[in-house]
């Protein structure tokens, strides 16, 4: 982050303000972890802080300290809009384009207060007065940690902040397996553990609290898996009927796509999930090696993300979306 921005933000944060923190729509561990970590930090600086999520976050994140204070825009648009309109400063965390908050975008575009962007995705928009954008980071939570250090406020780090930041680093690094997991990542994690992040318990809370229905849905998704050996690709489909049959709850399909990459010889994995409420097919892509799923999702499926992890969507039917995916693979196969 530029020295000028650090100096300006230190001056801006020197006196109590109304501050709103925003994760992206359908927030994951990094979005919630960075928002809640920043929430606890700014509260210690005596600011009046509110986290507003565009929509609900998954139950497997609900144990995180501060989640009970998060407001959901979709559930209370009047109150959350008023809070945004009364804010002195708005942080956007783990996203870099306002359309990522869905319907809340209309409210944000009419605000005249400064925005602070902290994010590690590619091609940031220019809505923020203060921008901390760096694709070399594996998670926004790592950036929040460095942000606090850059402000010379390391002494304010505590167990709550450490717990939230550890959660986001763990989830966005794929359990410390993704390529952007560096020595620095592990040094930050070591510090967070020293501050009280319970590294043996957090993975259990995140990954080992399955409902029986979720495990059955996972089994169905695995049964539906197809492998395209010639294209080093695997994909799964989950229909709305599958979701209904196994009493789908938000977040239940999290991580399913990763199983496709565990197959020997597979470099690209995808999952296609039907969502009748939103009249679209939601897609997650994962890759290993040099296959850039960010560019793939951006080019063909109105999405984006990272080189090895991205998402997209399609307004075609489930079968038509899968057919399009296969056609793209054939057309781009050398």
Topology (SSEs and partners):
Blueprint: H1 3-12, E1 18-22, H2 29-44, E2 48-53, E3 71-72, H3 77-85, E4 89-93, H4 105-108, E5 115-119, E6 130-133, H5 140-150, H6 159-172, H7 183-194, H8 202-207, H9 212-223, E7 226-228, E8 233-238, H10 240-245, H11 258-261, E9 268-275, E10 280-287, H12 293-300, E11 304-305, E12 309-314, H13 318-332
Parallel strand pairs: 1-2, 1-4, 2-3, 4-5, 5-6, 8-9
Antiparallel strand pairs: 7-8, 9-10, 10-12, 11-12
Order of helices and strands: HEHEEHEHEEHHHHHEEHHEEHEEH
Overall average pLDDT: 95
Q: Which quaternary structure do these chains form?
A: single chain
Structural class by SSE content = alpha/beta
Structural account:
With 334 residues, the chain is of the alpha/beta class. It is 38% helix and 18% strand. It contains 13 helices and twelve strands. The strands form two sheets. The protein has a six-stranded parallel sheet with strand order 3-2-1-4-5-6, sandwiched between helices. Strand 1, helix 2 (29-44) and strand 2 (48-53) form a beta-alpha-beta unit. The longest helix has 16 residues, at 29-44. The mean pLDDT is 95.
Question: What are the key terms here?
Answer:
alpha/beta, six-stranded mixed beta sheet, six-stranded parallel beta sheet, single chain
What is the compact description of this entry?
The protein has helices at 3-12, 29-44, 77-85, 105-108, 140-150, 159-172, 183-194, 202-207, 212-223, 240-245, 258-261, 293-300, 318-332; strands at 18-22, 48-53, 71-72, 89-93, 115-119, 130-133, 226-228, 233-238, 268-275, 280-287, 304-305, 309-314.
């Amino acid at each position: 982050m530029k020295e000028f921005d650090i100096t300006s933000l230190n001056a801006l944060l020197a006196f109590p303000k109304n501050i709103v923190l925003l994760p992206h729509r359908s927030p994951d561990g990094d979005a919630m972890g960075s928002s809640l970590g920043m929430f606890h930090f700014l509260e210690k600086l005596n600011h009046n802080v509110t986290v507003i999520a565009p929509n609900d976050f998954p139950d497997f994140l609900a144990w995180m300290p501060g989640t009970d204070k998060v407001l959901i825009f979709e559930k209370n648009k009047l109150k959350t809009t008023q809070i945004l309109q009364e804010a002195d400063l708005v942080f956007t965390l783990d996203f870099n384009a306002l359309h990522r908050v869905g319907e809340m975008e209309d409210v944000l575009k009419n605000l005249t207060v400064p925005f602070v962007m902290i994010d590690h995705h590619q091609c940031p928009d220019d809505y923020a007065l203060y921008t901390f954008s760096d694709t070399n980071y594996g998670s926004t939570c790592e950036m929040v940690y460095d942000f606090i250090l850059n402000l010379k406020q390391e002494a304010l780090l505590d167990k709550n902040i450490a717990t939230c930041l550890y959660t986001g680093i763990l989830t966005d690094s794929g359990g410390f397996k993704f390529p952007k997991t560096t020595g620095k990542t592990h040094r930050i994690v070591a510090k967070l553990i020293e501050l009280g992040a319970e590294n043996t318990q957090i993975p259990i809370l995140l990954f080992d609290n399955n409902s029986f229905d979720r495990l059955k849905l996972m089994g169905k998704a695995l049964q539906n898996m197809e492998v395209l050996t010639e294209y080093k690709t695997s994909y799964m489909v989950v229909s709305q009927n599958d979701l209904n049959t196994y009493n789908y709850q938000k977040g239940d399909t999290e991580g399913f796509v990763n199983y496709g990459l565990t197959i020997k010889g597979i470099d690209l994995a995808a999952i296609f999930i039907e969502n009748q409420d939103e009249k679209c097919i939601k897609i997650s892509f994962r890759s290993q090696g040099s296959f850039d799923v960010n560019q793939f999702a951006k080019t063909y499926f109105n999405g984006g993300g990272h080189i090895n992890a991205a998402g997209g969507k399609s307004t075609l039917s489930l079968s038509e979306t899968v057919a399009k995916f296969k056609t793209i693979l054939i057309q781009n196969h050398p």
